[in-house]
Write a structure and sequence with these properties.
Strand order of the largest sheet: 1-9-8-2-5-3-4
Radius of gyration: 26 Å
Order of helices and strands: HHHHEHEHEHEHEEEHEEHEEEEHEEEHE
Structural class: alpha/beta
Number of helices: 12
Oligomer: single chain
């Protein structure tokens, strides 16, 4: 029999320190594994249509909202976005990270939150899933508003994490966090009641909460400029603020280059002397301008690229634009329009992805090869192009030009 003899008994503080060190090592190992797996991923290795779909949706949204970024960067940006998304899920399992968050709170909003009810708006940026545990740790009294699907899929998990967190903090209050559905017909009345009882209300304002998955009355949406385009957003948060005269505090999570976490906490200026419509418009724009400014600096730290829009998976004939004749091609140099289209080859077939139209269009192998051939500029003369022993007529090139697949150099 082997007998283990301890030279000394560790006090609880040292035991806790050792456990934290072990958790840190485990976290670093998992983080490095995620990073190395994605670093080695190349386009040619992807054969799963579902994986491609996520990459393409991200690319199409970058095309639309950050047009200065060149298409050649899309794949690596999508990989980085995927890495941060996976890291967010990992983070919520390691509560030691809560002790290492850097808080930037120049206006001392946390102190205000402990005393009064506020509307807390936050975003799917950085390590955003640490915000709820952080508020629990800080003993902020609040309810969370999210969509029905989240409650169904993750509500139980949130409560389990809450129990684990409270146990680690030796907290006596184990009352489950109240999560209220954004689709609740009595939502406004419930939230007003919670605010009157001293609760703050938390919203992740940039999610697909009811906005892209559910039909919403147009009267509840506001069209606002966003980066290089626009988005439709809910008016409800600003309306709740105006109705209850409750001020808004913004939480924005940012991940540093060493992957540590920072939360920026700032009050949102609310002018309740404005009329209701103006207040809603101005306040809502302020909420999203904070996200907009962040994305200009940290575009890959936002989960929203995955659901700003979704592809139409049906085969669609795009309207013909810029119609030309064969004679207009003679003497011109043509090149594949990689700014607008992406060519995909997977076991299921050959596809062209239209970033601008959010369309996935099945094409023949021959057309795929021709477009690939034109990724380098080609001068057109009166003779047909012979490619892989196939004769490509000028009429085919004319149609590809009219469909905007080929453009002048």
């Amino acid at each position: 029999m082997i007998r283990i003899v301890l030279e000394r008994t560790l006090d609880p503080y040292h035991v806790l320190t050792i456990l934290k060190m072990n958790k840190k090592l485990e976290y670093l190992f998992n983080t490095n594994k995620l990073q190395s797996d994605l670093n080695g991923l190349v386009e040619e290795d992807i054969s799963n249509p579902i994986v491609w779909r996520d990459f393409l949706i991200v690319s199409a949204n970058i095309y639309r909202y950050l047009p200065d970024i060149k298409p050649k960067r899309y794949f690596n940006l999508a990989k980085e976005i995927l890495f941060y998304n996976q890291l967010v899920v990992l983070d919520q399992r390691y509560f030691f990270l809560l002790d290492e968050i850097q808080i930037i709170d120049e206006k001392l909003c946390l102190d205000e939150l402990r005393e009064s009810s506020y509307i807390i708006t936050t975003y799917h940026t950085g390590s955003y899933r640490l915000i709820i545990p952080f508020l629990l740790k800080e003993k902020i009294k609040f309810v969370l508003v999210t969509d029905e699907k989240f409650i169904h899929d993750q509500g139980k998990g949130i409560h389990e994490l809450q129990k684990t967190l409270l146990k680690s903090l030796n907290a006596t209050d184990s009352k489950p966090l109240e999560i209220i559905s954004a689709q609740d017909v009595l939502l406004l009345m419930k939230l007003r009641d919670k605010i009157e009882k001293g609760y703050s209300v938390v919203f992740y304002i940039d999610g697909n909460t009811g906005l892209f998955k559910y039909n919403i009355n147009e009267n509840k949406l506001l069209k606002i400029p966003f980066l290089a385009d626009y988005i439709y957003v809910r008016k409800g948060i600003a309306f709740l603020s105006y109705l209850t005269k409750t001020r808004i505090i913004s939480f924005l999570s940012e991940r540093q280059t060493d992957l540590s976490n920072t939360i920026h906490i700032e009050p949102v200026e609310c002018d309740f002397s404005m009329n209701r419509n103006d207040f809603i418009k101005v306040t809502t724009s302020k909420l999203y301008s904070a996200l907009e400014n962040f994305l200009k600096e940290m575009p890959t730290q936002w989960e929203g690229w995955k659901y700003l829009n979704e592809f139409n998976q049906e085969k669609t004939d795009e309207p013909i634009k810029n119609r030309i004749l064969v004679k207009d091609l003679i003497g011109q140099k043509l090149i594949y329009n990689e700014r607008k289209f992406k060519l995909i080859k997977i076991p299921e077939g050959f596809y062209s992805v239209n970033y601008e139209g959010f369309q996935v269009i099945e094409i023949t192998e021959l057309i795929f090869s021709v477009l690939l051939f034109f990724t380098s500029a080609r001068k057109i003369n009166q003779k047909p192009i012979i490619f892989n022993n196939e004769r490509i007529s000028l009429t085919v090139l004319k149609e590809l030009f009219n469909l905007n697949y080929l453009i002048y150099v």
